[in-house]
TrEMBL record:
It comes from Methylobacterium nodulans (strain LMG 21967 / CNCM I-2342 / ORS 2060). PROSITE patterns: AA_TRANSFER_CLASS_3. Its cofactor is pyridoxal 5'-phosphate. GO terms for molecular function: pyridoxal phosphate binding; transaminase activity. InterPro entries: Aminotrans_3, Aminotrans_3_PPA_site, PyrdxlP-dep_Trfase, PyrdxlP-dep_Trfase_major, PyrdxlP-dep_Trfase_small. This is Aminotransferase class-III. The keyword Transferase applies. Keywords: Aminotransferase, Pyridoxal phosphate, Transferase. NCBIfam families: PRK05965.1.
């Protein structure tokens, strides 16, 4: 059969990202065939609600003809133009200008990449260049957060704090350091939000002191930690950390690869905390996943310092597909859609999703409900007082993902039982309600599992 032979071909030849290769060989691939709005259809014709917008990226939703047409038009006219040799293309220039106009503060310079990982890589390279040409080459140490995710390039995977990205990869590098996450649900500083902020500030100060104040180049943070389990820092946390970085002469990098482009409400989540980072990374929602693209935003100061440092010499950082015209044409059309109703719909849908998930807070398995806008998580526990996670032996993440799938819902399941949500901004009220209802069913079914019942007893 069509899909059976695909499963065999996949098993034999396609290496899947962030997967157990042997586990995947056993379970086999689930092939998706088509999608429209917030619904994906698998090879057997089954429809599922995509509660995760692909991989937190299809913010506009699937099946926008205008995006397809923008790409097709650009492919016909000029499918590729290098941005090397002083060349360029109209959509890339227009997209850079449109993004700079909308970015916070003086983040006026945009470097286009192919996705988030190479955006993070670009920041590390440019920061080293910046610190060197301003006469501080000894500033070569980088700090990020536990539970942080900053991509899968060798450098980004080292800034990432997820064990699977380090084990057997020789990471992190000696110049990459972590401080604890401001994880309100599980924070040694307790649940008081001011105390959590104070603990983060103290941890950053202590780490800088340990490394040598003259050695630290930059601090990286996601406005909401996505792949670490949708961890929402207290309001004011990012502003406090940003201000401390300025005081300590450390660059503050906001990694908005997930939070950018309406995921939490506005175009950029750092604006909700009135933060202007020194550098900002984006990808995913930039093109809504229709084609690959990322963008690094640089402040005037960083751009000018790097530019003046090199003078007439070339600054050796670039990709064949930097500023790709087809991706840029898609980015322009996606931006137009965001600003013609999608951001607004996303904000309404986000309020409904947060309220809907909060209505599950008294379910016996729900330890924590958290999120902002269309980014949310439920953290499951078998004992609310002790915050004890689901039994690890039976791979709760796999079980929850499968159960969601069987209930017609795609979500992300993390660790020992965190359900992650990032539905498209186009979701209707009925679709948001269905996500919540199907989640309730997943929880009720999980409550029937013998090992979960035993752990609760
Ligand atoms: N940074 C953050 C915060 C991310 O969530 C991701 C991907 O999920 C990346 C970087 C890497 O982006 P990509 O997978 O496009 O390389």
């Amino acid at each position: 059969m069509f899909s059976n032979s695909l499963i065999e071909l996949d098993r034999a030849h396609l290496v899947h990202p962030v997967a157990s290769y042997r586990g995947h060989e056993r379970t086999g691939v689930r092939v998706l065939r088509s999608a429209k709005g917030a619904t994906v259809t698998d090879a057997a014709g089954r429809e599922l609600l995509d509660g995760f917008a692909g991989l937190w990226c299809v913010n506009a939703g699937y099946g926008h003809d205008s995006i397809v047409e923008a790409a097709a038009r650009q492919m016909r006219e000029l499918p590729y133009a290098t941005a090397y040799f002083g060349l360029g293309s109209e959509p890339a220039i227009r997209l850079a200008a449109a993004l700079a106009e909308r970015a916070p503060g003086d983040l006026n310079h945009v470097y286009f990449t192919l996705g988030g990982s190479d955006a993070v890589d670009t920041t590390v390279r440019l920061i080293r260049n910046y610190q060197t040409v301003r006469g501080k080459p000894e500033k070569d140490q980088f700090i990020s957060l536990e539970q942080g995710y900053h991509g899968s390039s060798t450098v980004g995977a080292g800034l990432t704090a997820l064990p699977a990205f380090h084990a057997n990869f020789g990471l992190p590098f000696a110049w990459q350091h972590k401080i604890p996450s401001p994880y309100p649900y599980r924070n040694p500083a307790g649940s008081d939000l001011e105390a959590i902020i104070a603990a983060s500030l103290a941890a950053l100060r202590a780490k800088v002191e340990e490394l040598g104040p003259e050695r630290v180049a930059a601090f990286y943070a996601e406005p909401i930690q996505g792949s670490g389990g949708v961890i929402v820092p207290p309001r004011g946390w990012m502003k406090a950390m940003r201000d401390l970085c300025a005081e300590l002469d450390i660059l503050f990098v906001a990694d908005e690869v997930i939070t950018g482009f309406g995921r939490t409400g506005p175009l950029f989540a750092c604006t909700e905390d009135e933060v202007v980072p020194d550098l900002m990374t984006t990808a995913k929602g930039l093109t809504s996943g229709y084609v690959p693209m990322g963008a690094v935003f640089l402040s005037n100061r960083i751009y000018d310092t790097i530019a003046d440092g090199a003078g007439e010499a070339a600054i050796g950082h670039g990709y064949t597909y930097s500023a790709h015209p087809v991706s840029a044409a898609v980015g322009l059309e996606v931006l137009r859609l965001y600003e013609n109703g999608l951001l607004e719909n996303g904000r309404r849908a986000g309020t409904r999703l947060q309220a809907g998930l909060q209505s599950l807070a008294d379910h016996p398995l729900v330890g924590d409900v958290r999120g902002r806008g269309l980014l949310a998580a439920l953290e499951l526990v078998v004992d609310k007082a002790r915050k004890a996670p689901l039994p690890a032996a039976a791979d709760p993440a796999r079980r929850i993902f499968d159960r969601a799938w069987n209930n017609g819902l795609v979500i992300r399941a993390f660790g020992n039982g965190i359900l992650g949500y990032a539905p498209p901004l186009c979701c209707t009220e009925a679709e948001i309600d269905a996500i919540v209802e199907r989640t309730r069913r997943i929880l009720d079914q999980t409550l029937e599992d013998a090992d979960v019942r035993a752990a609760m007893a």
